[in-house]
Amino acid sequence: MKTVRRMTLLVLVIGAASCHYSSPFGCRPESPDPKQPAPDSFRVAFETSKGRFDVMARKSWAPIGVAHFYTVLQNKYYDDARFFRVVKGFVAQFGMSGEPKKTEEWQRRCIADEPVHHTNSRGTVAFARGDPNTRSVQLFVNLADNPVLDNLSGFGFPPIGEVVSGMDVVDSLYSGYGDSAPRSGPQYGREGPDQDSIAARGNAYLNAGWPKLDFIKTARIVQEWPPR
């Protein structure tokens, strides 16, 4: 069984908290798909177990990230994905598929880094990453203003868009499991799940140990500018 490499990012959030996300070995940055050019901006409806929230993606903020987000959405990748890491006052993170094969395929499709053109303010959405050029499919919504993420470790996390409606839904996502589990393994119901195990077993693993996690029912583009 292949494992994914966990990256850890230390930030200050009411003391010290950590931002974990996974990146596969062998990840190679891809160029945007010329057959699916992203519009200048587009609105995405996330229907979740707690209700709907909408994200406006803005190419002017992060053209590489937005183009990749557009491609991922065309493939309905986020359907049935859990919000596996929700830390109050910090972030709500998602983007590991309930199907291990999908996670393995898409986490290898990384994109190149790009500058931060908009701060990580409350409600903005950005790709998680570890090493340089490892953004792939994991995203997080900032639950508070997190300017430290703009240039942390010299690279930062470029927001690709922002929640334009339904931020109350995002705030209500279940956060009772706390942060991601340490390398020693999770204490069921007391710590968040382990990302390597999510990658290997998908929703079967999450449903067994973290049944209260909220999830995405569907994520669909509902409007584009300029119109097509």
Q: What does the model show?
A:
17% of the residues lie in helices and 31% in strands. It has 228 residues and is α+β, with helices and mostly antiparallel strands. The chain has a single domain (5-25, 38-225), classed as Cyclophilin, CATH 2.40.100.10. An eight-stranded antiparallel β-sheet has the order 6-7-10-9-11-5-4-12. Strands 1-2 form a two-stranded antiparallel sheet. A two-stranded parallel ribbon has the order 3-8. β4 (41-48) and β5 (51-58) form a beta hairpin. The protein is globular and about 40 Å long.
Concise account of the structure shown:
This protein is an alpha+beta fold and 228 residues long. It is built from 5 helices and 12 strands. The N terminus is likely disordered.
Helix and strand layout, with pairings?
Layout: E1 5-12, E2 16-23, E3 28-30, E4 41-48, E5 51-58, H1 63-74, E6 85-87, E7 91-94, H2 100-107, E8 109-111, E9 124-127, E10 139-142, E11 159-165, H3 167-171, H4 195-201, H5 203-209, E12 216-225
Parallel strand pairs: 3-8
Antiparallel strand pairs: 1-2, 4-5, 4-12, 5-11, 6-7, 7-10, 9-10, 9-11
Helix pairs in contact: 2-4
Fill in the keyword field for this structure.
228 residues; 17% helix; alpha+beta; two-stranded antiparallel sheet; 31% strand
Residue runs with pLDDT of under 50 for 5 or more positions: 1-20
CATH homology superfamily: Cyclophilin-like
How many strands appear in the DSSP assignment?
12
Sum up the overall morphology in one term.
Answer: globular
Rounded mean pLDDT is 86
What fraction of residues sit in β-strands?
A: 25-35%
The number of distinct helices, counting runs of at least 4 residues, comes to 5
Q: For the CA atoms, what is the radius of gyration?
A: 16 Å
Structural class: alpha+beta
Provide the CATH top-level class: Mainly Beta
CATH topology: Cyclophilin
| Gross CATH architecture | Beta Barrel
